[in-house]
């Protein structure tokens, strides 16, 4: 049944070259933890992607209850956490996933750095990777405000003040993020929500696509 | 791939006809050296083992530690000491040092993080030699180790200097209770001295909140009459001067105030 479906699509679209490229790409011994346990350091990137997928899925479920408005944001999170079936688990996975993804992307960056894998011809992939790191930190920062509790509000206040201290464009960044030159309130919350749920995930998916296409084109770097 | 003349296409699409296709057969891995194997399905099944172990740890963390939620944001609370999430603590700590704060704020807030991030981004162009082993490229290795050590040190300092008990207290969710202000117990309360110290909604003022007390009505009545003595000091004065009947109604009313 599945084979027939595959053949039907393949006849029309010739997907075999793409599929064989993904399925057959060689995994050399030096990155395979089944052969050298120390090669688990090569799993950090895959685990970062794994958590990213969990973040996207849990985030989609969170938006089924979350309301991005200063009257109801905190109430909706409180309700989600205390009343909704498995709400505490879904929010917990999103909350702890945010920490874990930062840890894993940090470890992945260190692995690539210390194995010198960013060198020619992989410079472009390294740059995209550093941009991904920036996007992940941006997601962490904007997501922290959304529960609209005390620590969220005041940490964001500090963060926006830091952004405002950038020379020349600082005030414009502040206005863009907070929606007002002095007030951190309703506008800020909706903007952070939009950035957290639409802008940054779009950037994340685009960069991830580029990251993966490049690694498939070049293959993983050889042993040291 | 055959191109040009003699190429057969599927219908009017650009996809080539079946006779020009690549066969859907896995690569022969005997041509590869050593223990190289195919990604699908050989390696992915093994990698999923690592993913599964990781997922178990992740779920244990989630069920063991409910994600925190503090009280609803109140911009008027100027006494609140802010704290970012733990992975930004090192940046936050950096801003507390003399030459990275105040008039030098731009050093700690922009220049140092900007230089570090820029150097990370441009690493392939700063470190251009062919050597890949960390020991063969001492400068990049040393800089990265220094950066990691600084991040760990600053995070450590930030955690050590933060008053975690005060932070927990300032973030607590205030208990909310619907007070039945038409109840006889409330009327007695509002006409007595109690309301002056414990607030109109039992939220506490000079005295603590009366919501969610773990006392029995008898104990509450006893406290209302005699006050509280702690370590020789009178922390609550004897306050009740009404009738015993009213006292009992009041004590039962207060004992019934539960958090929702």
UniProtKB/TrEMBL annotation, chain A:
Pfam families: Cytochrome_B (PF00033)
Function: Component of the menaquinol:cytochrome c reductase complex.
GO cellular component term, pick one: plasma membrane
Domain Cytochrome b/b6 N-terminal region profile: residue ranges: 5-224
Subunit text: The main subunits of the menaquinol:cytochrome c complex are a Rieske-type iron-sulfur protein (QcrA), a cytochrome b (QcrB) and a cytochrome c (QcrC).
Domain of life: Bacteria
GO biological process, one term: respiratory electron transport chain
TM ranges: 39-67, 96-114, 126-146, 193-215
Protein name: Menaquinol:cytochrome c reductase cytochrome b subunit
Presence of the UniProt keyword Transport in the record: yes
Organism of provenance: Planococcus salinus
Subcellular location: Cell membrane
Cofactor names: heme c; heme b
SUPFAM superfamilies: Transmembrane di-heme cytochromes (SSF81342)
UniProtKB/TrEMBL annotation, chain B:
Ranges that cross the membrane: 48-65, 104-126, 138-156
SUPFAM superfamilies: a domain/subunit of cytochrome bc1 complex (Ubiquinol-cytochrome c reductase) (SSF81648), Cytochrome c (SSF46626)
Keywords: Electron transport, Heme, Iron, Membrane, Metal-binding, Transmembrane, Transmembrane helix, Transport
Annotated compartments: Membrane
Gene Ontology MF annotations: electron transfer activity; heme binding; metal ion binding; oxidoreductase activity
GO cellular component, one term: membrane
PANTHER family: CYTOCHROME C-553-LIKE (PTHR37823), MENAQUINOL-CYTOCHROME C REDUCTASE CYTOCHROME B_C SUBUNIT (PTHR37823:SF4)
Name by which UniProt lists this protein: Cytochrome C oxidase Cbb3
Organism: Planococcus salinus
């Amino acid at each position: 049944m599945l084979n027939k479906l595959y053949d039907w699509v393949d006849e029309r679209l010739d997907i075999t070259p793409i599929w064989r490229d993904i399925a057959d790409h060689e995994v050399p011994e030096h990155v395979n933890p089944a052969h050298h346990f120390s090669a688990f350091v090569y799993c950090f990137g895959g685990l970062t992607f794994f958590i990213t997928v969990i973040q996207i899925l849990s985030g989609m479920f969170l938006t089924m209850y979350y309301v991005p408005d200063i009257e109801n944001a905190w109430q909706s999170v409180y309700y989600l956490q205390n009343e909704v079936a498995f709400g505490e688990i879904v929010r917990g996975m999103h909350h702890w996933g945010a920490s874990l993804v930062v840890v894993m992307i940090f470890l992945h960056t260190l692995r690539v750095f210390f194995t010198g894998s960013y060198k020619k011809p992989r410079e472009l992939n390294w740059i995209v990777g550093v941009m991904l790191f920036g996007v992940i930190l941006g997601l962490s920062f904007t997501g922290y405000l959304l529960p609209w509790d005390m620590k969220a509000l005041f940490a964001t206040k500090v963060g926006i003040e830091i952004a405002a201290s950038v020379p020349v464009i600082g005030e414009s960044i502040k206005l863009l993020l907070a929606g007002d030159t002095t007030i951190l309130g309703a506008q800020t919350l909706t903007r952070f929500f939009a950035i957290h749920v639409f802008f940054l995930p779009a950037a994340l998916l685009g960069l991830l696509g580029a990251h993966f296409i490049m690694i498939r084109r070049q293959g993983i770097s050889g042993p040291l | 791939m055959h191109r040009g003349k003699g190429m057969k296409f599927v219908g009017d699409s650009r996809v080539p006809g079946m006779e020009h296709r690549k066969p859907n057969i896995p690569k022969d891995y005997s041509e590869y050296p050593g223990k190289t194997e195919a990604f699908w399905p050989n390696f992915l099944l093994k990698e999923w083992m690592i993913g599964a172990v990781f997922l178990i740890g992740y779920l244990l963390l989630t069920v063991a530690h409910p994600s925190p939620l503090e009280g609803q944001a109140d911009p008027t609370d100027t006494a609140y000491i802010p704290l970012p999430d733990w992975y930004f603590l090192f940046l936050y700590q950096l801003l507390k040092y003399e030459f990275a704060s105040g008039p030098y704020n731009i050093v700690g807030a922009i220049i140092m993080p900007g230089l570090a991030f820029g150097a990370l981004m441009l690493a392939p162009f700063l470190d251009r030699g062919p050597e890949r082993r960390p020991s063969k490229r001492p400068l990049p290795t040393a800089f990265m180790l220094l950066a990691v050590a600084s991040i760990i040190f600053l995070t450590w300092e930030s955690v050590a200097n933060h008053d975690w008990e005060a932070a927990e207290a300032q973030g607590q969710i205030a208990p909310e209770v619907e007070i039945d202000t038409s109840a006889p117990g409330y009327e007695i309360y509002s006409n007595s001295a109690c309301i002056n110290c414990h607030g109109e909604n039992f939220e506490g003022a000079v005295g603590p909140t009366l919501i969610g007390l773990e006392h029995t009505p008898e104990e509450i009545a006893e406290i209302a009459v005699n006050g509280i003595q702690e370590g020789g000091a009178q922390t609550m004065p004897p306050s009740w001067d009404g009738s015993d009947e009213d006292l009992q109604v009041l004590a039962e009313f207060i004992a019934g105030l539960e958090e929702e």
